[in-house]
Amino acid sequence: MERVLKICSFISPATGWVGPLSEAPDPVFSEKMMGDGVLLDPVSGTLCSPCDGEIIAIARTNHAVTVRADNGAEILMHIGLETVALDGAGFDMRVRVGERVKAGDMLVDFDLSFLADNAKSVLTPVVISNSDDYEIFAISEGYKTQGDVIFDVRAKTNNGAAISVDMDGPAMENPIDLPLEHGLHARPAARLAAGLKGFNARVQIIHGDKICDAKSTVGLMGLGTKHGDNIIVRASGPDAQRAADMAIKLISEGLGETPMPLTPVGANANIGAIASPKPSVALDGSAVLGGTMGAPGLVIGTVFQWKTQDFNYAENGQGAQAELNCLIKAVSEVRGKLEALAAQGVKRGAKGGAEKGAGAQADVLMAHIGLLDDPGLLEEARLLIDKNKSASHAWHKATRRNIEILKSLGDARMAERADDLLDIELQVLASLSGENAGAAPDLGAGTIVIADELLPSQFVNLASEGLGGLCLIQGGPTSHVSILAADKGVPALVALGQDISAIPNGTNVILEADRGLLHVAPSAGKITQIKAAIKKRQKNQTLAKKNAHLDCVTKDGVAIEVFANLGASGDAANAVANGAQGCGLLRSEFLFLGRATPPSEDEQLSMYQTIADALDGRPLVIRTMDIGGDKPVPFVHIPDEDNPALGLRGIRISLRREDLFLAQLRAILRVKSSGPVHIMLPMVVERDEFMAARKMVEKASKQLGLKGKRSLGIMIETPASAVLADQLAKDVDFFSVGTNDLSQYVLAIDRGNSGLAASIDALHPAVLRMISMASKAARDNKIWMGVCGGAASDLVAAPILIGLGVTELSSTIARLPELKAFLRTVTMKDCEAAASHALTLTNAKDIREYVRQKWPHLADWT
Ligand code: PEP
Ligand code: MG
């Protein structure tokens, strides 16, 4: 993000003829509506980066890509003309939005002869899309080899030419369904941007959770719109009304294309077009709303509706130096506060010993400090301040642009980083305005806060005021706020939907997080009943903690191994303190997620050894890196995938990157422990994969001069591995069921989709039947089988899992004491009978009800 260069030379992105842009047979380019540049006639099908920079936009159909050079100029390369109509055919995009590239790095591999046969033209405009701010000079035309310099670009000095926009006054929002056959691709985007240039207004286009300036063609293309999408035109400033009318008119007329008919809202309309009803909720005690558990617990309280603060500030500043000083001061104030909070957390954690709480909060705070320290963010804001913008406006713009990039990557972990950025954006804005960001209202003890979404710092503020429980309209079970809530013991429900916003402040509610239920204005009788249940649970939890170190043996004498899932080397001691008898899943990729370079063998060894030492001879199952899917890492390039969960992930990457795999296997094999160290492979679908991995283990052992066979098992987390478990069990040493992915793939529900979070349940009979197949195969072949997915931490699922033949459960650290304590109250005979019956039921809800009826005292636990 650093912008130090004022002049930047751009090289030809492909070999071919470079000529004037005015010769493009398309007025959008020839009249420079998209910006100034050149026209390239490529002779080969490889498009490379023309400069060092960052990928900021990729057309949905992969025919155009934009790079922001390190001096801020944005260069758009549009391969061929009207190639959007090819709908991606012939283009193999090799980069992702947000990726850093070097001049000459390959961006797109395209089929030139296919384009020649199927597109209007292969002529490729190469333009500076922010030509209002940057000018092109020293153009060199003629035949160029990829890599030859074709022009230089520098920032314009009189940026004041831009229209001054008075941001006062409310913004108006007008929705419209896009009639454009291919959405807002390059040409219509350029026409819209050009059509709005004369207005003294800020016009933005909102599409889902993405927003961009309507005068930015790159931003418009980055929205990824398609025909029929509902977008919102938001306008503010003196000419807002006229500008919004113009935008709506241009869009409805097709922006130079023939508008395509839209499906009317009605029986045949797609789901996205159905308007949501106004939120409402009954207050007569009959309303019980359903959500997804973010953090366990049962609590009674009164509602407080919490709204995010809006900050009002001027867009233009009071002089660049003064604004910059204010921003630097605000950033350093926020940094100081975060450091103080982190230090408090560490002190509390040290006093509390094994008590959880310090870890997750301190991690989030450190992540925020890291973002504040990012020089690129400050530099980006400084460039805006140099253009006469206020510190608040510049900071807001800089953070929002990066938030959009992170969100556009479309994976859950990057979206969480976007939440962190939003969090520090608000904290710095608050500091600039002299207010306290997300300042907690005076909550009475036991207040249940209802909010749309909550940021980590807002949660921390609220929690410091004695927050009793949390209900979010949106949110996800794996978000930072859910993790923090679990850490602080605050019961939380997420993805409850809009209706909770209609519950008036002060209404009594019962929050049954474990069951995903919110009872609104319950009767006095229900409250008495829940109070008694809460009392019993507290008693049980205290006792469970006390007995955490005892073995876990059912009433009829069957021992179950209760292990912990680990994702950080510091977790192991905590797990042992909570009664873990081993580690059933070390998510090794978690140790290396943020790194830019692969971890060396020695670094890995040191981390694994620390964990093995803390486990002190207890078994350790190290899963080889499950990279890909929702866990991309910068050091492994994965081409853009429509469905990352179904793409290059887990063992598929390990077998393609032998260098990484071998280093990891060698590190694991070098761990010294008095107990067993097992190797576990993720995402296996067939025997050949396992055998290939086994060969690698043998190779690593041979290199290290080690004798003897190593325990090598697989995760059962794909339907294929469950169905073929009888074949796999002949060769592997153990199975461990990953119920998170197994549920995702069996039920065809994305595990990160908060809208369907309530339906993805490992107790679905289809998932249980898969587990049952794998368990039979394990028994027949005398290998052990555990469960390490989320179901292992679920007290309702646990008796069914052990009834299906699972002998080891690997749970979250927090759940260990209760899991052990509850399983000590059941008999294996009952669990087996319950498991057989569960397999005959038709849905997860009925199975949950049945388990609760069979063991009514579960209500005293969860
Ligand atoms: C699982 O899929 O259940 C599992 C344990 O693996 P992860 O959650 O890391 O994908
Ligand atoms: Mg998994």
Write up this protein:
This protein is of the alpha/beta class and about 850 residues long. The protein has 26 helices and 34 strands. It has an 8-stranded antiparallel β-sheet. The radius of gyration is 29 Å and the shape is globular. The structure holds phosphoenolpyruvate and magnesium ion. Phosphoenolpyruvate binds near residues 717, 740, 741 and 789.
Count, helices: 26
Helix content: 25-40%
Q: What is the alpha-carbon Rg in Å? A: 29 Å
Write down how many β-strands occur, each being a DSSP E stretch of 2 or more residues. 34
Shape: globular
Strand order within the widest beta sheet = 9-5-6-7-11-3-2-13
Q: Please, what is the average pLDDT? A: 86
| Ligand roster | phosphoenolpyruvate, magnesium ion
- Provide the β-strand percentage band: 15-25%
Q: What structural class do helix, strand and pairing data support? A: alpha/beta
- Rounded to the nearest angstrom, the distance between the terminal CA atoms is 48 Å
Low-confidence stretches: 1-5, 158-168, 263-275, 346-358
Major sheet description: 8 strands, antiparallel
Task: Record the SSE blueprint.
Layout lengths: L6 E5 L4 E5 L6 H4 L5 E7 L3 E3 L4 E6 L5 E6 L4 E5 L12 E3 L6 E2 L4 E5 L1 H7 L5 E5 L5 E4 L4 E3 L4 E7 L16 E6 L8 H10 L6 E6 L2 E4 L3 H6 L7 E7 L3 H13 L35 E3 L1 E4 L2 E8 L14 H33 L5 H15 L2 H12 L4 H18 L3 H22 L13 E5 L4 H8 L3 E6 L7 H9 L3 E3 L13 E5 L4 E4 L3 H23 L14 E6 L4 H7 L5 E5 L13 H15 L4 E4 L27 H6 L1 H12 L7 E5 L5 H18 L7 E5 L2 H5 L1 H4 L5 E4 L1 H9 L17 H16 L3 E4 L10 H6 L4 E4 L4 H8 L4 H11 L5 H11 L8
Parallel strand pairs: 21-22, 22-23, 23-24, 27-28, 27-34, 28-29, 29-30, 30-31, 31-32, 32-33, 33-34
Antiparallel strand pairs: 1-14, 2-3, 2-13, 3-11, 4-10, 5-6, 5-9, 6-7, 7-11, 8-10, 12-14, 15-18, 16-17, 16-18, 19-26, 20-24, 21-25, 25-26
Helix pairs in contact: 3-5, 6-7, 6-8, 6-10, 7-10, 7-12, 8-9, 9-10, 11-12, 13-24, 14-15, 15-17, 17-18
The structure holds phosphoenolpyruvate (PEP) and magnesium ion.
